[in-house]
Amino acid sequence: MPSYRSLLSHREFAGLYVSFTLLVAASTLSGFALATLINDQTRSPFLTAISMYGATFATVLGALTLMSVADGRHPRRTLVVLQGVSLLGVAAQAVPGLPLPIRFLLLLVVGFFQSLGTGTRMGLLAEIIPTASYALARSLMNITSGGMAILGYAVGAVLLRVLSPTGVFVVATALTAIGLVVVAATVREHSIRLTPRPGLRQTWLTNVVLFSMPGRRALLLNLWVPNGLIVGCVALFVSYAPGQAGILLAAGSAGMLLGDLAVGRLLTADQRRRSAFGLRLLLAAPYLVFAIQPPIVVTVAAVFVASAGYAATLPLQERLVELTPDGIRGQVQGVESAGRMTWQGIGAAIAGGLAQYVTTAVTITVLAAISLAITVVSRPFVVRAPVAAGDRPGR
Fold it and tell me: Residue range 18-45: average pLDDT?
């Protein structure tokens, strides 16, 4: 059975992984610094929140326009160029006295190119490692992403005590630059693809193919919507329990990391496939206890257990790769990632809007119930999803 150690002994995967880790750390630090800077200048909670999560909405633009570059003939070259553009965007934020509209524009530009980079990176990942190791590799990257986000916020808080936001931007720029050097030095070119010229037309053609099959539509629905609605629940922790929000967030992060570790490392491919439905139910069901507003110990336990359900993403992503022709895997995974991030923002917006009219406890309960309903109703379509070998753009 493959292990994390055996994966990291693979030079190209190790390069992708280290570069990805550095990019997550840099993104977390720069987002934290930007939010701090904007909060200091405007004292606006709305603008501060947008500065932290606004880049996720730019991922949709990437998925709809140029995501086909993820499946171009020279993916390594493409990834290096995209990370270079992201480096310029992060470095520009370090310019002192930059007007806020320019900062928001840079935020969107970086989000756009990072979404294309995600698709390219995941396309390379599917080519670099054996199919049997794919879920384990995604598990490791998911764990790292969550862990680095937590560590990044903690380190960012410390750095902001000794540095200005501009200084933190410089640190984020350095991490991004190192990540660029690592991927350029370790990943070789994979020029075996015979896809058409990337561009807007090819992106749309592939997206039409992607959404034309009920099986893939159901998979994407399960990857995006239930997850996004539960993130909306999480977005209300501060309003629900201001004094204990940190404990709830920490419990959620710990549960998520444990779930990814257990599902990715301990279960076989068949066991992961069979567990996907149960994990998706687990993601939402414990949040129903918020309806009775139990003691904080109970809610912390519920959030911890529920967050292990995020690991349902692993078998669903694995199934999506099986359903996807080799030539468009990069774009499909880029679209999946962009949609998931966007639905997290949508879930937070829905939760915040609904909580303006009813209590946060009722809002959390309603979102969890809707998440459960979508999972149950869509299950037959996921189970019946066929693999269409000849399903390729242009056919």
Answer: 83
